[in-house]
Design brief:
The protein is mostly beta strands. It has three helices and 14 strands. A hairpin with a 3-residue loop joins β10 and β11.
C-alpha cells in the first residue's frame, strides 16, 4: 500500500455514492439505504422501498468493496421501517491481505412525523494473513492462524428529530457493545441538516473513542442540489483529526422515477500518504403499494 493502514481501513465504514460525495455528513438527512450504515433512525423520514448495489475502490490501499442493501420504509400498520444490508471488503491484497464481512439489520420506529428512534445490529468478521510483512511473523500486526482477528456482534442506536419542515438533527452511537478494537471502534456522531425540496446541506461531528490513544474527532460538511429533477450535484469536505487529513469529495448521477445511478469520489489533500476513494451506487425503487408507480425516487435523497 502507499497509504497508511488506518486510512485504508477507514473505520471499516461502508460508503455509498451519496454519503461519500457529501463528506460523510448525513447523520440527519441520510434516509433510505444510507441510513443502514449511518443512522437507522432516519429510515422513517422517507417513504420508499429501495434496493441498492454498490461497489467501491481505493487504488492506493488495494481496497475493494462490494455491497447490497434493501430498506422498506413504506407505511405499514406498525409504522415500522426496516432494512438489511451487507458488504465484503479487502485491502492490501499483496501484503496484510485483510478481508472483512459486514452484515447489518436495522429497525426504526417513528413517533409522529417529527421524531424517530432506530437500532442496527451488526455482525463483523475480519480476517488477516499471517507472516505476510517484510519482517515475517509479527505479534503486532499479524493475523491469527486458526480464527478471525475480529468476530463480533455490535449495536448502533440512533435518534432523529425534525425541528421544522426541512430542518433535522440526528445522533447515533456506533458499536455500543464496546468491542475494544479499532477494527470496530466505538464512536458517536451528531449532525444537523437542512433539506428543502431539491437542496440539502448538512454539517456533522464525529468522535472516535477507540482507534487512538485518546478520543479523536472528525468534522464533515456536505451539500447537494438536484438539477432538472434528475441530476444530483454533490460536494463535501471532511477533516479527520486522527489521521490529520483533509479530504474533498464530489459526486453526481442520474435519478429516474424507479432507478438511479450515482458516482462519488473523495481525495485526500495535504497528506504524505493520500488516497482516492471511488464509489458507484445503483438503486432500484420498488412499487411498494402496487399501483404501478413507485414513490418519487427523489424522496429517497
Amino acid at each position: 500500500m502507499s497509504t497508511t493502514p488506518e486510512a485504508a481501513y477507514d473505520n471499516g465504514d461502508v460508503w455509498n455514492a451519496r454519503t461519500l460525495s457529501m463528506g460523510g455528513a448525513l447523520a440527519a438527512l441520510g434516509v433510505s439505504t444510507p441510513s443502514l450504515f449511518l443512522n437507522p433512525a432516519n429510515m422513517p423520514f422517507a417513504r420508499v422501498y429501495d434496493l441498492e448495489a454498490l461497489g467501491g475502490l481505493t487504488p492506493e490501499a488495494g481496497r475493494a468493496t462490494a455491497g447490497l442493501a434493501i430498506v422498506d420504509s413504506s407505511l405499514n400498520k406498525f409504522h415500522l421501517a426496516g432494512g438489511i444490508g451487507g458488504a465484503w471488503s479487502q485491502m492490501d491484497p499483496g501484503g496484510a491481505r485483510r478481508t472483512w464481512t459486514d452484515v447489518r439489520a436495522a429497525l426504526a420506529l417513528p413517533f409522529g412525523d417529527n421524531f424517530a428512534i432506530g437500532a442496527t445490529g451488526r455482525w463483523l468478521q475480519v480476517e488477516q494473513a499471517i507472516s505476510s510483512g517484510p519482517f515475517g511473523q509479527s505479534y503486532v500486526s499479524d493475523g491469527t492462524p486458526s480464527s478471525s482477528i475480529v468476530n463480533a456482534i455490535t449495536v448502533d442506536l440512533g435518534a432523529t428529530v425534525a425541528l421544522a419542515d426541512a430542518l433535522r438533527v440526528g445522533a447515533v452511537g456506533r458499536n455500543l457493545t464496546v468491542p475494544g478494537t479499532a477494527l470496530a471502534p466505538t464512536s458517536g456522531q451528531l449532525g444537523i441538516g437542512y433539506g428543502p425540496k431539491d437542496v440539502a446541506v448538512e454539517v456533522d461531528g464525529m468522535m472516535d473513542f477507540t482507534t487512538y490513544s485518546k478520543p479523536r474527532g472528525r468534522l464533515m460538511l456536505g451539500g447537494e442540489v438536484f438539477v432538472a429533477d434528475h441530476f444530483p450535484i454533490r460536494a463535501g469536505w471532511r477533516y479527520d483529526d486522527g489521521t490529520r487529513v483533509h479530504a474533498a469529495s464530489l459526486g453526481t448521477g442520474y435519478v429516474e422515477t424507479a432507478w438511479s445511478a450515482e458516482l462519488g469520489v473523495r481525495r485526500d489533500l495535504m497528506s504524505d500518504h493520500g488516497s482516492t476513494v471511488l464509489v458507484l451506487s445503483l438503486r432500484y425503487f420498488f412499487d411498494a403499494v402496487g399501483n404501478g408507480a413507485p414513490a418519487d425516487a427523489v424522496d429517497a435523497f
